Protein 1
Amino acid sequence: MVKITFIEPGGSARTVEAALGTSAMEAALFNNVRGIAAECGGLCSCATCHVFVDPAWVGRLAPAEADELALLDFTAAERKPASRLACQLRLDAGLDGLLLHLPATQF
């Protein structure tokens, strides 16, 4: 299990546990974290699981692939350098403690 902390736009933090191999999007959905819509269910086709990776964690993640980068151009909230899709963030032991900021909107 790994712990992930989601920071809501207002600053409230919610830490959840997730199984290794699941995605950050699945961790949010399984734990009823508000702010992740995940309309496509994790198929990397909708951009409604947009998150901002905390700067301390950006370098620990695998780089985004072309399909994720293309979808990030269509997020409802402003795209930032640390923008990622939570469905593409597979959790491993090295990501225990991951900190993700939620945008104000997914639509």
Note: Residues 77 and 105 are 6 Å apart (CA to CA).
Protein 2
Amino acid sequence: PATDAAPDAAADVIPDGVVTGEYEGFGAVTGGHESCPDTPAEVHVTSLEDDGAGTLREALSEGCRHVVFDVGGTIVLASDLNIRWSYITLDGATAPDPGITIEQPGDIGTTIEARSSTGAAHDIVINNLRMDGQASSHVNVGDIWGLDGESSPVYNVVIDHVTGIASTDGVFDFWEDVKDVTISWCLVMDTVTALHLSSDDHSQTRERISFHHNVFARNNERQIRIRHDNRDVDFVNNVIYGWGWFEGGGYGLGIQLDPGENNPSMNVIANVFHFVADLHGTEDDAVDFMRGADEGQVFFEGNIVPVGEGDLVSSGSRIDIPGHAVVMQLPASDLGTDVVPHAGTHFPTADEQALLAEIAAAL
């Protein structure tokens, strides 16, 4: 592997083997239910059915709620599950063994979806869930916890220690007006187009987004893909394990150029892009940075990439991240031991454990 530069010596560093357990990044301005101006309700999920008394769907039918699980097991969705309210903590860490798996068969999606009728969706924390899209082909239908700010803004969101598998569309796609979000310590796997920050309405922006200490494995592309007007994206200490798993044209991180627009501003710091042989991707597709006069402010430092990757050339200086949103930073060389084993939900399956062990050994 090759590295583009040494990490900034002044950056915060996690001591070896230490996981803070606290939310970091731009989304950490929220406490989820704890940020509610009224006294939040604690709502217990006591049933693994799709709908009815004691179910997750009922628990998410109002805002200002701390949703906890008294049961562990699998919830099979019969229709889309959308969070349209604010001040919600969906606390999968409370579930007993084997944790909570949410299956999304067919074209069913899960979304944080602001609507004009209910207003913005904000102050939402989701942790320690396994989300299985069960996709066997790519049909661009249902997201896994997509953030949809088309009708009203979505902001102040944390998605942490979530395992997202085989979405029919994307995993944590950001759409239109989305701001102040943290995606951290997640495992995103087996998805064709993993994660996209984009918009049809080019007046809408995605701003102040932190991706830190995530593992992207066995996805074809978009780990992540960033397009149109995205501002202050901080991409730190992530592991991208292979690209081009399913078809030609796969890549790791994609930075799109759209002439005439305000193109992305982002930091790409101390990540590992690990090439896996015998896939459809090539070594120089770890980063796909389209260049041009409007290429934006993109800063690379301290990343480990395959020999031959030539796109890690900064187009601007490091973006200054405010103190409250700075994430603890490891050297990229330590991610195999200090990040990979801790990614995803708190009850990994045997297959997930084997995959994470494979990645850690490869790094």
Note: Helices lie at 56-59, 335-338, 350-362.
